[in-house]
Amino acid sequence: DQQVKQNSPSLSVQEGRISILNCDYTNSMFDYFLWYKKYPAEGPTFLISISSIKDKNEDGRFTVFLNKSAKHLSLHIVPSQPGDSAVYFCAASADNDMRFGAGTRLTVKP
Amino acid sequence: DTEVTQTPKHLVMGMTNKKSLKCEQHMGHRAMYWYKQKAKKPPELMFVYSYEKLSINESVPSRFSPECPNSSLLNLHLHALQPEDSALYLCASSQWRGRNEQFFGPGTRLTVL
């Protein structure tokens, strides 16, 4: 039973435009959410997080939005750059450990 | 030092072999994790150590045996594996177990013949 879902396996965006990656979760006990980026042959790298007491968190070009009623979060990257091309994992945590989505492969074209 | 290191990067083993995966961090983190990741799937949690004690074992077969010799080191001992155990094995650490970011190593790509 996958509690964290990323329904888009891939996304292609033009350089300079906005990338929007989506994530849905089913467990209402999750209250801390994270996004990770993964390049080939490397482990996932932490990008940004958000607590359930907030609905938005921003860090430079990256913004995460949380809609608790819809059990949905999204990652916005503006402007997108070719170096952002990677697999992005959404993760959610309750009081113990994290569960990950299957990832979305983002390709940013020059 | 904000790095989690894992050795080896690649490992090929037969079903009768015994091998070990190693993980190390020097960030003073007190929680360490082993994940298994198959292609196009999310990382799946296998084991969690919190303050050097095994906190969770997600119903992992006994052919996988974790060990935490000290707060900086984590091992995964492998014995009598099956071909379906071939996967990327990721180690991670965090300041504490729970709601905080985990730092991942590059992983060990394991192939069981």
Task: Walk me through the structure.
The complex is a heterodimer of chains A (110) and B (113). With 110 residues, chain A is mainly beta. Chain A contains no helices and eleven strands. Chain A has strands spanning 4-5, 10-14, 19-25, 32-38, 45-51, 56-59, 62-67, 72-77, 86-93, 98-100, 104-109. In chain A, a hairpin with a 4-residue loop joins strand 9 and strand 10. In chain A, 34% of the residues are buried. Chain B has strands spanning 4-7, 10-13, 18-25, 31-37, 44-50, 53-57, 64-70, 73-79, 87-94, 103-104, 108-112. In chain B, strand 7 and strand 8 form a beta hairpin. Chain A binds chain B through residues 2, 4, 9, 31-32, 34, 36, 41-46, 49, 51, 89, 93, 95-103, and chain B through 4, 6, 33, 40-43, 45, 48, 56, 90, 92, 97-99, 101-107.
Helix content of chain A: under 10%
What is the average of the pLDDT values of chain A? 94
- Which structural class should the secondary elements of chain A be placed in? mainly beta
Rg of chain B, nearest Å: 13 Å
Oligomer: heterodimer
| Beta-strand fraction estimate of chain A | over 45%
Q: Give the topology string of chain A: H per helix, E per strand.
A: EEEEEEEEEEE
Q: Averaged pLDDT of chain B, please?
A: 92
Would you list the SSEs of chain B in sequence order as H and E? EEEEEEEEEEE
Distance between the termini of chain A: 38 Å
Note the overall shape of chain B. globular
In short:
With 110 residues, chain A is mainly β.
List keywords for this structure.
heterodimer, A: about 110 residues, mainly beta, six-stranded mixed β-sheet, five-stranded antiparallel β-sheet, about 0% helix, B: about 110 residues, seven-stranded mixed β-sheet, four-stranded antiparallel β-sheet, 11 strands
